[in-house]
Amino acid sequence: MSTSPAPSSAPRFGVNYTPRRGWFHSWYDFDAALAREDLDQIAGLGLDHVRIFPLWPLLQPNRTLIRASAVDQVAQLVDVAAEAGLDVMVDGVQGHLSSFDFYPEWTRSWHHRNVFTDPETIEAQANLLRTLGSALAGRPNLLGLQLGNELNNLVEHNPVTVADVDHYLDTLLAAARTGLGSTAGLVTHSAYDAAWYGDDHPFTPEASARKGDLTTVHPWVFSADCARRYGPRSPQVEHLAEYGVELATAYAEDPARPVWVQETGAPEPHIPAADAPGFARATVRNAAGCANLYGVTWWCSHDVDRSLADFPELEYTLGLFDATGRPKPIAQALAETVAELRAEPRPTEPRTTALALVRTPGTRSISGPGGAYFEAWMRLRAEDVRPAVVLTEHAEDETYLTARGIKEVVRPL
Amino acid sequence: MSTSPAPSSAPRFGVNYTPRRGWFHSWYDFDAALAREDLDQIAGLGLDHVRIFPLWPLLQPNRTLIRASAVDQVAQLVDVAAEAGLDVMVDGVQGHLSSFDFYPEWTRSWHHRNVFTDPETIEAQANLLRTLGSALAGRPNLLGLQLGNELNNLVEHNPVTVADVDHYLDTLLAAARTGLGSTAGLVTHSAYDAAWYGDDHPFTPEASARKGDLTTVHPWVFSADCARRYGPRSPQVEHLAEYGVELATAYAEDPARPVWVQETGAPEPHIPAADAPGFARATVRNAAGCANLYGVTWWCSHDVDRSLADFPELEYTLGLFDATGRPKPIAQALAETVAELRAEPRPTEPRTTALALVRTPGTRSISGPGGAYFEAWMRLRAEDVRPAVVLTEHAEDETYLTARGIKEVVRPL
Fold first, then answer.
1. For B200, left (φ over 0), alpha (ψ -120 to 50), or beta?
2. pLDDT level of residue B9 (50, 70, 90 thresholds)
3. d(C-alpha A326, C-alpha A342), whole Å
4. Closest to B382 in 3D by CA, of B263, B286, B275, B296
5. Which stretches make up the Glycoside hydrolase family domain (chains A, B) (predicted)?
6. How far apart, in Å, are the Cα atoms of A54 and each of A57, A132, A306, B25?
7. Which of A301, B202, B262, B343 has the fewest other C-beta atoms within 10 Å?
8. Contact at 8 Å (CB) between B2 and B212?
9. For position A9, what pLDDT does the model report?
10. Spatial separation of the C-alpha atoms in residues A266 and A282, rounded to whole Å
């Protein structure tokens, strides 16, 4: 039904790479040796990949100036990761990182341009993605090129319609693909949870689940207050990533489209530090029970150093390693879980029972924590049913259901 | 009456340094050898100084992170200028440059802070200026540390009152002075013409003329449409910088306070290219007729390369050198004028006739092109009177008038 890449026989496990020294400001003083230290630590946990985040203003300080040296540093980081034995997903246009929005000056202030709708700004981003893709093409450890991290965090300051977003994503995905050329790399995009849970949010589940080579999900436990609502050790929290994969699968046109849990993490106080190792084990293990899981990429590798100001409190303690480079208990828990899963046979039995979901942009919040659909799914899950999700428009489509291995469709009460 | 430095026996002549390759984006890839090439060209014109402009986001990407490497590059540029035989004024917080506003991410978007009024943001800028001052202190070719380029361009996006501005300037000037320590360097600030001509603009003439070690003026011919209104070869245009010095002198508390024509230039189409050499000669020569002139610093050294997008049209052709590094006719005109002035005795006769100006924040526009006071002064000037400017509050203060050498105060009709 599509050209989606089949999930690899085993899911990938990795981490979002947050440089220990200087956070992403380290791009200003890129040092391959320091990066190598961080990456060796990551590889030492048995993880197989990292996701990396260059900064837009450094790559493209003027609309028509892409700094070759900055592009080269991205390529160098990919190569350093290869030396450490890690594959790499490159997010092109940052954009949003841990509450900070990195915009080049030519989009702000007197030069304000809407990054989603201004034609010259879209073209500039397309040029950047083509350039990055072309520079990275052919590297054997390159997983692919993603447009940018949670682009929809920029919606608040760049008002945009669904049609605008679709045009933007289509244009940039095509540019990234052109850049990569014949390289067998993924081209993807990502959005924070508003795409799945936000009524009338302009980034839609359909855009996430149908554009690009696979679907990325970032099921954070603070979204819709999931952990606060149900508790840090609740089934709802421990199955959140699994649920996110199943929900995303329902929106895909290709029943076998892979879904990547590209960000999940244990933010304090939503997940108290003592609960973090258990949360990591459960999250990864439960997500690994999804047949079409592409992989899980933990957020993040290293704590933000407290010498850096103004991060939301929860951002300081999300690392597997602390700001001095010491592994935290969650690092060990993640490493052990990954090793265990790799040693186990991958579950092959499809989810035979699906819970039907009415697809309505304006009622998306029913699918989020606190929503009726979410809670119905979690009730079924508590009965050990391992439910899938199907859209009601597919609920009587035998071809579709067969392709997914679904034998029974349940309607929520 | 104050501790203002006396004007040097001869005014200084220099240029605002706009790097030929990559404009100010060249800070991202600082290369002392490339800077040296540019600076040697500048020194080759017989100019004695440059004004340089580091970028705030590069110096201070996080509120509590001042990049030592970026500070060091500023110091390196000062040293490279010394090797080229040039003195250097360093503008600390950019801020505004040629229509682009460079703000660190921690002041924008989700983290929006008013750069003039937020206490932590003021403290961060004070830290930056202390750090820069300390790093630069003791360099014999350092003219001083200015807070930043035309800070009042940021008012539009950071609403602020007169009292707020005064507090901001006082705090940062003190920080810059602390940073320089015992170094005999100037500590100054700068504003674009709205400070002088803009009714109720929160940066006041008093702030310009009374804070910091001398007064800086940036009398641009496009302000209040001066060149369009009177013509590019009009007396109003050719005496604009001279008028700016006299106007600034009136607002000073120290009658001998030096005034620096820190920016003036020949923007097309306001000044057609063919008129630019004549404009430069007249501007510099007329300004040099002001007894308390500190110096004239032309804007700018090098044209902006047209491969860089989105600059206002006039910004592309303001250089003494074109984007390939060739000197333009205006470079020769400026060099010759500077050489001539250095060979001539400096005018020592005071301006004995002054035109009285009513000081009212809300009627400042009378002092600008098109304004009644401006036009009255220019009429007197056309009679070869060489008028000074006095505030009406000083018009009968004999001590004050004597200190300035004024014998006759004329009221505008």
1. left
2. low
3. 25
4. B286
5. 27-266
6. 9, 10, 22, 17
7. B343
8. no
9. 66
10. 12
Q: B84: left (phi > 0), else alpha (psi -120 to 50), else beta?
A: alpha
- Domains delineated in chain A: 12-348 (3.20.20.80), 349-413 (no CATH)
What is the per-residue pLDDT across A61-105, written as a single tens digit (0 to 9) for each? Answer: 999 999 999 999 999 999 999 999 999 999 999 999 999 999 999
Flag whether residue B21 sits within 8 Å of chain A, measured between CB atoms. no
Of B65, B102, B309, the CB nearest to A308: B65
Residue B101 sits at the chain A interface (C-beta within 8 Å): yes
- Closest residue in B to A24 (Cα) is B61
- The letter for the amino acid at B367 is S
Residue A103 per-residue DSSP state: -
Predicted confidence (pLDDT) at residue B120 exceeds the cutoff of 60: yes
Write down the mean pLDDT value for chain B.
96
Contacts of B159 (CB under 8 A, 6+ apart): B114
Q: Which residues, other chains included, contact A310 with Cβ-Cβ below 8 Å and sequence gap of 6+?
A: A99, B62, B63, B106, B111
User: From CA A92, how far away is CA A336, in angstroms rounded?
Assistant: 31
ipTM: 0.95
| B126 has a pLDDT exceeding 80 | yes
Radius of gyration of chain B (CA): 20
- The predicted-structure confidence for B296-345, as pLDDT tens digits, reads as follows 999 999 999 999 999 999 999 999 999 999 999 999 999 999 999 999 98
Residue A337 to residue B215: CA distance in whole angstroms: 67
